[in-house]
Amino acid sequence: MRIVGLASGMDIDALVKDLMKAERIPLDKMVQQKQIFEWQRDSYREINKLLDELDRLIFDGVYRLSNFRQKKVTSSDESAVVAKAINASANTSTAIEVQQLAKAATYSAATLNNFTSGARTLKFEVTDPGSTETREVTINIGENDTLDDVIYKINSSNLGVTGMKLKDSSGVERLVLTNNKTGEGGTIKAADSETFDFLQSLGFSLDDTTFNLIPETAGQNAKVKINGYETVQTSNTFTIAGIEYTIKNVTTSPVTISTSTDVDAILDTIVKFVNKYNEVIEKINGKLTEERFRNFPPLTDEQKEEMTEKQIELWEEKAKSGLLRGDAILTSGLNQMRLDLYSPVAGDALKGFKQLTDIGISTTANYLDRGKLTIDENKLREKIQENPEAIYKLFMSDGESYNDKGIARRLRDSLKGMMTKIKDKAGTSLSTNDQFTIGKNLKDLDNRINAFQDRLIQIESRYYRQFTAMEQAIQRANQQSAYLMQLFGGGA
Fold first, then answer.
1. What is the pTM of this model?
2. What's the rounded Cα separation, in Å, for the pair 405 and 413?
């Protein structure tokens, strides 16, 4: 603890504090520069996040052929047959007649009165309907398990059935097992005598030779005619030529299933891409043209203490402005993205679909939009209806040369290159400062700040030593003056 100013009567602490303010000016500038670097780093990372979002949207949208093969499917009788497009390329009209629905096999116990608890291991060999592969299933029954516990374990196992207790028309409660899959040919076999005896004790019927459970109702395949051709299916839901059919009832006349291009769904995919692209270039252009307010440097801690939160917010809004103004990485990246979109795609197969303007997408008339896209929806709808796969190729054509690549492929390549450059400069949230340029600048500034803070401690100590020496000199002068006055007074 220092006690100074007793001899001089001066506020030494205040004097040293004022002197240190001047000495701290270089440190404040370094701290402010560090803050600028951190803001720049964060701005770059924000841009990279936006570019990554665009890249992901392209991959999930115009990058996928299935998005350009979306179909609307209609049924002339939805109570009998419904359908949806899975991967259908052409528009079709199909006549389907349902002759027989698929059913699952059921197995019924005669009575539940003979169930006795006790630990046992049930072993089965199971073949599903329509399959030739057999799997082994083991169910462990505990010493004190009830019948409900047994049913729960059956349902939770890989046996492939659902068990439940049901009362028949005479009021007798039975255990009924229903196969989880429809169709003919499935078998459930007791794999050992213990399992055979347990199932028989419950009243299930089993073949004495094969040990197979005998169904009360056998499994049944679905039988349908499609365009006059008869086919058998193990399930009431099946896929043919990219269309998934679900049959509900036997029909007396053919049901017509029609597919057409789902223009709205494909249009939505393209609109999402255009909107996201516009959002990205708008934000990047905003950063590139943002005004730089050099008279608003980052605030020091002392300055913040003298301001309200609103004042700090308004000040820092201007201090952060323009930190990426005219940035070379963003400028070159944006120029490349525009080139990717506007350059025609080569290939004879793309006649009439070589560039975005061919499908109704062009740049806005307002030059202040700096390359934002606009959509002529009527024209785009016409082109989607005309040839949706040609539009897909416009986005996704592949080739060795730049001109052979589709617009989305070019754009993703450019986005990845741009994101890599930004990462090299600003890193990611997982990067250490040694791994990117701004981080190295921050590390260098930290070292200089620490060294300067050590120097300030030495300077402050020197000031106090000097003022202490002054105090001591004043003290001695005061003592000498008092002594002389005492002498002069004594002489009188």
1. 0.75
2. 10
